[in-house]
Amino acid sequence: MADRNELIGDCVHCGFCLPTCPTYVLWGEEMDSPRGRIQLMLQQSQGEPLTPTMAGHFDACLGCMACVTACPSGVKYDELITETRAMVEQVRPPAGRALRAAVFALFPYRRRLALAKAPLRAYRTLGSPLRRQLPAALRTLLDLAPPAPGRARLPRVVSALGRRRARVGMLTGCVQHAFFPGVNAATARVLAAEGCEVVIPAEQGCCGALSRHSGRTAEADRFATALERSFAGVDALIVNAAGCGSSLKESGALAAKSFDLAEFLADLGPVATRHPIPLTAAYHDACHLAHAQGIRAQPRSLLHAIPGLTLREIADPEICCGSAGIWNVLNPAPAAELGDRKARNVLATGASLLVTANPGCLMQIAAAVNRAGRTIRLAHTAEVLDASIRGVRP
Predict the structure, then answer these.
(1) How far apart are CA 90 and CA 42, in angstroms?
(2) Is residue 301 located within the same domain as residue 361?
(3) Which of 80, 183, 217, 319 maximizes the CB count within 10 A of its CB?
(4) CA angle, residues 301, 208, 60, in degrees to nearest 5
(5) Locate the 4Fe-4S ferredoxin-type domain: which residues (predicted)?
(6) Mean of per-residue pLDDT scores for the chain
(7) Domain of 188?
């Protein structure tokens, strides 16, 4: 990382970041904007103590990186907020530390997430009065979780259909593995149909994304190092969750060979026939795909290539849906506001299907649409491509 003071000095306080920042849009507070937080970083670097109030402004940041896209000066806010969050973790009061410890004792571990499905089913049998007695963070977590899916076991190796064009590894993830196994199955089928031999290690662990984006860098590095051993010997590592892909590209030996599914497929070029899907779909840019990885055109080009599929754009696409890893669990009220805003914009398109590339976004928007008393079908990009290749409805 470059010198922190130099990175801070790159900000010229022009304000281009303001209309893209979710917390500034919500509250209109300067210290809850990217340039305001950078000013706080400057004060802290000049010797001002990292107070609870200052830390609160840093914690309020979703880490969506829309400001990085909007900044004309190339300010590396992503690097600054990552380092600053690591500092905040060192001075966090015991209560906040305990809550985060509980969250991180669950999310990065696939077996623990699988065990959580039983209490989730029990929670759904409770009436509203009993639900309201639970802590807000726990209630939000349980409300966001989708219905527990059936088991979807994947083989350790999926053979390429036709001539083998690449040998790739596939990250099955934590939340994706537990709650969206159909996305992983669709990803493997699409890759195989496009001529890839797909290696899927059974014991792969967490990539470290949630930890890295929350300032727990040592923990994130341990996860990433363990993952490197699982994917030795593949040409590329294919990731179908935006946050995971962003984290893997930020550090470690896997950075150079980690690719988002849409990014990889667009570069590889299609060989499998696409069958028509006569639907109108809206595509939602996951923040860690569009802003952190700069991947916007590739998923759209893949979807546009499906016969019969009409794609509509969503208003204010740069504003985060409020998921942001575990931000919606730790900040349920403002996250719900952002989710409701995104749901309104999605529903305004008139689309019957919402497509995105991140499990957190799928859960967040689904919950907001449900609160609005509306319905819309939701799918991952991989599921739509898979349906078109197989000639079935997504």
Answers:
(1) 18
(2) yes
(3) 183
(4) 85
(5) 1-31, 52-80
(6) 91
(7) 157-268
Asked if 186 contacts 214 with a C-beta cutoff of 8 angstroms, the reply is: no
Angstrom CA distances, 56 to 17, 46, 48, 166, 183, stand at 20, 19, 15, 46, 36
* Per-residue burial over 247-267, b = 16 or more CB atoms within 10 Å of its CB, e = otherwise: bbbbebebeebbbbbbbbbbe
- How do residues 372-381 score in pLDDT, each as one tens digit? 999 999 999 9
Cα–Cα distance between 390 and 189 in angstroms, integer? 9
Q: Which amino acid is at 289?
A: L
- Cα 361 to chain centroid distance, Å, stands at 7
Please tell me the distance from the alpha carbon of residue 270 to that of residue 279, in angstroms, as a whole number.
Answer: 21
With vertex at residue 212, the alpha carbon angle to CA 89 and CA 144, rounded to the nearest 5 degrees, is 95
pTM of the model: 0.91
**Torsion on CA atoms 79, 226, 285, 114, rounded to nearest 10:** -130
Same domain for 290 and 386, yes or no, is yes
Contact 187, 56 (CB under 8 A): no
Give the pLDDT confidence of 96-123 residue by residue, as tens digits.
788 788 888 888 888 788 777 777 777 7
The single residue listed with the structure tokens 């107070």 is: 51
The token pair at 326 is 């575990």
Residue 151 lies in a domain: no
Find where tokens 């290749």 sit: 389
CA distances for 290 relative to 16, 163, 265, 357, angstroms = 18, 32, 16, 10
- Within 10 A of 316 (CB to CB), how many other CB atoms are there? 12
